[in-house]
Amino acid sequence: MNAGGARKAKRAIRTRALLLILADGGGSNGNRVRAFKYWLQHHLCDTHCLVVTVAHYPAGASKWNPIEHRLFSEISKNWAGRPLDRLETLLAYAASTRTASGLEVTAQQVEGQFETGEKISKAQMKALDLEPHQVQPNRNYTLYPRL
Hints:
The protein is of the alpha+beta class. The chain is 37% helix and 13% strand. It has helices at residues 3-15, 34-48, 66-78, 87-95, 122-126, and strands spanning 18-23, 51-56, 130-132, 140-143. Strands 1-2-4-3 form a four-stranded mixed sheet. The mean pLDDT is 84.
């Protein structure tokens, strides 16, 4: 292990706050989306001193995401055959979903205006403490808090 790797390992042990994100390969949290990585660095890693590992599913493979299997199928069963005519209706059905194994869904509307089209520069990307993994480095990486 080189000096940089040892430093990062010490920080990971010191923080003891690790988060694994299994993300789809496309959309706003895709593996090539700079804003997603930038947001994780600033709002999770740096703010909460979390070590965040991200594994992006390849395009078309998100159906293998275990959360989608456990969560969305139960939500769909809960509102089956009922019209989702209002946002409140959708939120109520989602929030009332429970499984025998103890899975509970939390659903809420997030109010506010959200900027779109934010551009993250190469310099901003270089400033991230992002370490690509050896296997599929374009899809798998870890972000460390900058102390």
